[in-house]
């Protein structure tokens, strides 16, 4: 919650997956989360085979506009789930299979346009609490700077402004009132912090100090640093428009720059762009009412002569108008007649040192080319022919790397099986394969449940080579195979369907 990648200008944690060990572990994680963040009901949820309507829960997590933001998963989101909005992966269990480890990492590699404040997703974070990177000898991860939420940044700016307004030059009636207003707001935010929250308890000393307005009377520079480092990351966001808050941060930044005597050319240009954007839609009554101020900012020397009072007046007057500025996207249409002579694969396109690994490159290629005929066949459970195998050999043994690279990383596994494990199996194709056993008139409820779990497994994993998994949950939730299929000839036929799906991945 503190260090994860965020959206909405830092106000909201991006979609995140916590990989838990088992159902009990997942429930305990959820319990602790709800205890620490009682003000965020529904923000986190368990998604595993123990819950009813698991697919509905996955669909809700996959919807960028719906909760939960954090999915606590036990095997169900490890593979085969495509949620481009995922920005944070938390490994809270040991993963003994390198293939599965890379598939789990793949949950974060999906591209997503405009996800982070209008910019495309360019990275995701992995939090590994169980030594998986060390286990697979992948080296140490690079540390990254923490991303402070917008509310926290504003909180820190206010502290610095309060500190500067103590100067003799600013002891006017208006600025004294302005400083008092800032102090009252900061005290309110600190007093709102939940002292039972784990993160807050780590900084309780400073919470107690700055919850008292008397301690702002003679704020020193060290105090502003304490507020920035100890309290700003803890501040909970107000229910306010992110664009308005972004404008607040811009204006407070300009005010602080003015107080310390620094130029604010870049911020001024940003302000002028925003005001010009508002001016372009002045037919809106709220904007028209501020036309005099807007005109002064754009067409006079108002900003050149402005001080703290004027900047604060701009902030208060225009912050709620920023939401009306239309979001525009520039599209470029090209018309090239040149023929493409060749296409080359460059390491830089992957933008990730980890993808220098052959297997990672191969998985990256397969995920990005699921519309290619042979890959689409594998995903749709269509049998491969010799030409298809030749195409896979060309891709995996020529374009992505060599046969030696493949065998060194993957071993003797057939190419089709390798690709199928990456893309999974289409749900429709899986249900068609088991259609005869999903008819309620053919099987009883326990048997249908068992077959549905097989379908889910194969959709996520592409194959079911190791039938020993059928001796574990969730397959055994209703009983063992012998208990569920008293007529073993029915089970034998179901097993043939599984073997047929596996065989379709091999020519």
Helical fraction equals 40-55%
Q: How confident is the prediction overall: mean pLDDT?
A: 84
| Count of individual beta strands | 7
Order of H and E elements: EEEHEHEEHEHHHHHHHHHHHHHHHHHHHH
Major sheet summary line: 5 strands, parallel
Strand order of the largest sheet: 4-5-3-6-7
Brief summary:
This protein has 507 residues and is mostly helical. It has helices at residues 23-36, 54-62, 98-105, 132-135, 150-164, 173-192, 198-201, 204-210, 221-231, 242-260, 265-279, 285-288, 291-299, 308-318, 358-368, 373-379, 386-399, 403-409, 415-423, 427-433, 445-461, 481-484, 488-503; strands at 6-7, 12-13, 15-19, 44-47, 70-73, 86-91, 125-128. The strands form 2 sheets. Strands 4-5-3-6-7 form a 5-stranded parallel sheet, sandwiched between helices. Strands 1-2 form a two-stranded antiparallel sheet.
Task: Please describe what this structure looks like.
The chain contains 23 helices and seven strands. With 507 residues, the protein is mainly alpha-helical. The strands form two sheets. A five-stranded parallel β-sheet has the order 4-5-3-6-7, sandwiched between helices. It has a two-stranded antiparallel ribbon with strand order 1-2. The longest helix has 20 residues, at 173-192. The radius of gyration is 29 Å and the shape is elongated. The two termini are 48 Å apart. The model is unreliable at 143-147 and 329-356 (pLDDT under 50).
């Amino acid at each position: 919650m503190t260090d994860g990648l965020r959206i909405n200008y830092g106000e909201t944690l991006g979609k995140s997956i916590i990989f838990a060990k088992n159902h009990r572990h997942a429930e305990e994680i959820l319990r602790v989360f709800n205890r620490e963040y009682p003000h965020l009901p529904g923000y986190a949820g368990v998604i595993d085979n123990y819950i009813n309507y698991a697919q509905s829960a996955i669909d809700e997590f996959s919807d960028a506009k719906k909760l939960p933001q954090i999915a606590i998963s036990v095997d169900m989101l490890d593979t085969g789930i495509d949620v481009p909005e995922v920005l944070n992966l938390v490994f809270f269990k040991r993963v003994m299979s390198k293939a599965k480890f890379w598939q789990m990492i793949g949950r974060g590699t999906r591209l997503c346009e405009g996800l982070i404040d209008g910019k495309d997703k360019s990275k995701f974070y992995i939090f590994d609490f169980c030594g998986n990177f060390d286990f697979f000898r992948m080296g140490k991860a690079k540390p990254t700077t923490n991303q402070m939420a917008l509310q926290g940044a504003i909180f820190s700016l206010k502290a610095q402004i309060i500190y500067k307004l103590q100067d003799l030059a600013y002891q006017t009636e208006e600025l004294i009132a302005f400083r008092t207003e800032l102090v009252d707001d900061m005290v309110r935010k600190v007093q709102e912090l939940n002292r039972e929250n784990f993160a807050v308890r780590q900084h309780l000393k400073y919470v107690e100090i700055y919850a008292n307005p008397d301690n702002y009377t003679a704020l020193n520079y060290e105090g502003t640093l304490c507020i920035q480092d100890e309290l700003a990351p803890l501040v909970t966001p107000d229910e306010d428009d992110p664009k308005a808050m972004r404008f607040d941060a811009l204006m407070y930044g300009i005010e602080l720059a003015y107080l310390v005597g620094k130029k604010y050319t870049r911020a001024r240009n940003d302000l002028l762009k925003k005001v010009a954007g508002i001016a372009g839609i002045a037919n809106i009554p709220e904007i028209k009412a501020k036309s005099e101020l807007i005109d002064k900012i754009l067409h006079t020397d108002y900003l050149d002569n402005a001080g703290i009072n004027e900047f604060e007046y701009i902030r208060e007057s225009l912050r709620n108008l920023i939401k009306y500025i239309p979001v525009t996207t520039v599209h470029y249409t090209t018309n090239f007649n040149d023929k493409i002579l060749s296409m080359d694969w460059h390491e830089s396109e992957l933008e990730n040192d980890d993808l220098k690994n052959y297997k990672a490159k191969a998985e990256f290629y397969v995920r990005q080319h699921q519309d290619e005929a042979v890959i689409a066949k594998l995903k749709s459970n269509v049998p491969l022919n010799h030409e298809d195998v030749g195409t896979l050999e060309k891709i995996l043994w020529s374009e992505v790397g060599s046969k030696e690279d493949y065998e060194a990383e993957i071993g003797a596994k057939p190419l089709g099986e390798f690709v199928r494990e990456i893309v999974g199996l289409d749900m429709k194709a899986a249900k068609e394969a088991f259609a005869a056993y999903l008819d309620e008139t053919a099987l009883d409820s326990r048997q249908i449940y068992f077959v549905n779990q097989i379908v889910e497994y194969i959709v996520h994993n592409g194959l079911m080579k190791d039938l020993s998994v059928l001796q574990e949950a969730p397959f055994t939730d209703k009983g063992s195979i012998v208990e569920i299929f008293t007529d073993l000839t029915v089970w034998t036929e179901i097993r043939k369907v599984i073997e047929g799906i596996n065989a379709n991945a091999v020519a």
